[in-house]
Amino acid sequence: MNKKKIINDPVYGFISIPSELIFDLITHPYFQRLRYIKQLGMTHLVYPGALHTRFHHALGAMHLMGMAIETLKSKGHHITTQEEEAVTIAILLHDIGHGPFSHALEQTIVEGISHEDISSLFMDRLNDEFDGRLNMAIDIFKDTYPKKFLHQLVSSQLDMDRMDYLMRDSFFTGVSEGVISFDRIIKMLNIKDDQIVVEEKGIYSIEKFLVARRLMYWQVYLHKTVIAAEQLLAKILERARELALNGEELFATPALSYFLNNNINIKTFIHSKPDLDTFASLDDTDILSAIKVWCGHDDFILSMLCKNLINRNLYRVEISNEAPSAERVNELVLHAMDKYGVNEDEASYFVFTDSITNKAYKVGDGSIKILMKDGSVKDITLASDHSNLEPLAKTVKKYILCYIKGL
Questions:
Q1: Model confidence pLDDT, tens digit, residues 245-296
Q2: Which segments of the chain belong to CATH 1.20.1250.30?
Q3: Which residues on adjacent β-strands are paired with residue 189?
Q4: Model's pTM, two decimal places?
Q5: C-alpha to C-alpha distance for 25 and 192, rounded to whole angstroms
Q6: Cβ neighbours of residue 41 under 8 Å, at least 6 residues apart?
Q7: CATH annotation of 6-223+362-382
Q8: 150, 211, 148: which is closest to 179 by C-alpha?
Q9: Which of 64, 177, 266, 295 could form an S-S bond across to 306 if both were Cys, CB 3.0 to 4.6 Å?
């Protein structure tokens, strides 16, 4: 069988699959599952084009990794064929542990375990299936491989993951502020003291990259209506789980039913083969099919929330720099209790508060280093003459108040 396939990608054009092992990983059910997980959760309810998947993103990041390795090799850095394949596998599988609707349900289905942890578990399982051929890829992914710059290409503040999702998310949402000069950034990459650095002439492309990331967070990832949709989805799962654990019969696929009816934490998940096997068969379709059926459930709260999501009747969201006053929140809670005949605990499905943070850049460990013409290395915030970069390194925290419309 010819495994040197070419994939037509809407963002980069043709993407080549570089080796037979990588082809076999892409065709594995664990990876194919990513076709059915949206990259941007519920963002399509705001930007209708945002229906691309984790599968798209992983292939795009793999393509950028190939470009980066070629650039570094062309500048005289020694990277073996095995290391090239391993770092490509590491970026290909970096998101394999994502659950349904990506980040939207990260803490609802399995509490206390991140998608990175689950990705690591999947990679270990694949390594067993492929007779240890993923050992080096796993070492790079976990940052235990001697050449530290390889891990930085997979996970850092200037990795192939971020570069692809900014390009891809801006393409599918139509938000042009997220477009970056990915090809120029990659051409400017170099290595100094086992660290990825960017040559000084690429500094303006890096500035644009950081500003683009900041803007994409406010305009797409933390858009108030996206927050409303994802909070509604999380509240639906929270209510369904509460009912299921109290013995209520709920329609659900076997995979979803397993996670609704069992208390699963990080300790049990890591050591339980059934947990990972069941998670591997869970995707967006399990959640959406259940929500459509739950619209007709006898539980008023569950059915109302599900109908609201299906009909895009989302929470009203107020975002502010200060936490909402207790008086305002209590007033809305009392209105919800009175209007819907629910108790104070149940009113938390109709009125609640939360917070969001946006930090485009973190100074310190893993920061973006600029290789100056004199051979010295500086942090981007010190090397740049752009006065806007220092504020990008500050964490902006905002408070949100969500409540059902009509209160």
A1: 999 999 999 999 998 998 887 777 777 778 889 999 999 999 999 999 999 9
A2: 224-357
A3: 198
A4: 0.94
A5: 32
A6: 101, 102, 103, 104, 226, 229, 230, 233
A7: 1.10.3210.10
A8: 211
A9: 295
